[in-house]
């Protein structure tokens, strides 16, 4: 049985879709079978970031309504053969997502794929709660600013109450993905510090993704950042996050903290 | 046509006690409303979606003024579920029903026949029993952080949170509140009339604290206390605070 991950945030525009695509590609590059599912019905984006927008024929709503088979709606990535996309509908209303329909689709996907990654819409409404419903683990995407952190806190509350795991009395594994981290602004004190965010949300960190023009460049190319340029800083951070999701223990480095381990010991005196 | 009842089961009517906020206005009402607006503006959404009881005991207003007050509150999205301490003649149609002292209610089984022949009690009979502060306070322990949007409501006694209370979260306790973490949301202690209740936290960053209905917002507190381990208690009508080690 595959693992279901929901990528969620509460607040909009923090990097859920970017993270879904990047993590999906990173996991698939290792040969694992991965499907990324767009739950943002009516405002789909994942197809663009994956560069598959011209190949969408059927979508999640079609499958739920019985108008298409799952195999007809799944789009295989052109670059990675173990990576698939299940797109959202752009024209239909999100009320077309029924609980039973989503149950059926996720159950089927779990049988075939090692990882099912659900890109949640922003907000705390039906679309977001359906996207998290089946999750085994959650990646909570947060920007280092107050409103994003508070919305993430709210979402964590929902993850602990509105999911199947919560209903069964089990604990949802939650991981914090801090994105758009700008070290210059952090130094100036314009952003929340990593420690402050961790203290408020009290869930473990899975990765810190730096603010970088590489992300926009990749999405303009129609490629997950981990495929567009595997050596750029955000891609490396996503690769490490993917390894942590697989269960590896890796130390986390704060982007821009060039002092590193030696710097921490000697840096202050030199400055 | 008479309907033959074949089902012998009686209809089950349950009693249940809920924790409602009680507003007790004072005169002049205009001034009181200004203060209410001030509280609401500093703690947005405070009254939204909450049952509120209006207590007008001892307030010298007439039927027209009460109706006006009710409309003023409705305009502010404060929804009154019942009015306490009003004469029955003051509560015309379109007004919420009269309510009596919030004692705990047990399940009531009403047989249809009894229900039909019993006259409803008139409102001003039977002296209202005030709820007693229980000799043994119960306690509720929450082992995880209280997240934004969550509320912990425990009128029965003390609440202990092993973790933080997030901004946008709230803890409402009949007794004291202990937060082994940062208190960033709202904490309301002693809500069932227990003025000896206290609030303790490791780090005070609260949006609002209240003990036995007396409120204080963070901007009203000494900046020296913010971010510190603090206890809060009630001295007469004012909330006192000091750091604790
Ligand atoms: N690390 C980053 N550096 C720079 N820009 C980024 C980064 N991550 C995301 N962005 C940009 O932020 C914008 C929003 O990202 P994205 O669409 O992934 O967010 P989202 O959370 O899915 O938004 P929505 O809530 O609308 O679905 C995009 O323009 C994206 O390119
Ligand atoms: Mg998105």
TrEMBL record, chain A:
Gene3D superfamilies: P-loop containing nucleotide triphosphate hydrolases
Protein keywords: ATP-binding, Cell cycle, Cell division, Nucleotide-binding, Septation
Stretches assigned to the CobQ/CobB/MinD/ParA nucleotide binding domain: 5-225
A Pfam match: CbiA
Cleaved signal peptide residues: none
SUPFAM superfamilies xrefs: P-loop containing nucleoside triphosphate hydrolases (SSF52540)
Keyword Hydrolase: no
Function: ATPase required for the correct placement of the division site. Cell division inhibitors MinC and MinD act in concert to form an inhibitor capable of blocking formation of the polar Z ring septums. Rapidly oscillates between the poles of the cell to destabilize FtsZ filaments that have formed before they mature into polar Z rings.
Subunit: Interacts with MinC and FtsZ.
Family stated for the protein in its record: Belongs to the ParA family. MinD subfamily.
Protein name from the UniProt record: Septum site-determining protein MinD
Species, as recorded: Neorhizobium huautlense
UniProtKB/TrEMBL annotation, chain B:
Domain of life of the source: Bacteria
Listed Pfam families: MinC_C, MinC_N
Domain Septum formation inhibitor MinC C-terminal: 141-240
Record flagged with keyword Cell cycle: yes
Gene3D superfamilies registered for this protein in UniProt: 2.160.20.70, 3.30.70.260
Record key words, sorted: Cell cycle, Cell division, Septation
InterPro entries the record matches: CAP/MinC_C, MinC, MinC_C_sf, MinC_N, Septum_form_inhib_MinC_C
Record-annotated Septum formation inhibitor MinC N-terminal domain positions: 11-77
Oligomeric and partner information: Interacts with MinD and FtsZ.
Protein family according to the UniProt entry: Belongs to the MinC family.
Function as written in the Swiss-Prot or TrEMBL entry: Cell division inhibitor that blocks the formation of polar Z ring septums. Rapidly oscillates between the poles of the cell to destabilize FtsZ filaments that have formed before they mature into polar Z rings. Prevents FtsZ polymerization.
Name the UniProt record assigns to this protein: Probable septum site-determining protein MinC
Organism of provenance: Neorhizobium huautlense
Phylogenetic lineage: Bacteria, Pseudomonadati, Pseudomonadota, Alphaproteobacteria, Hyphomicrobiales
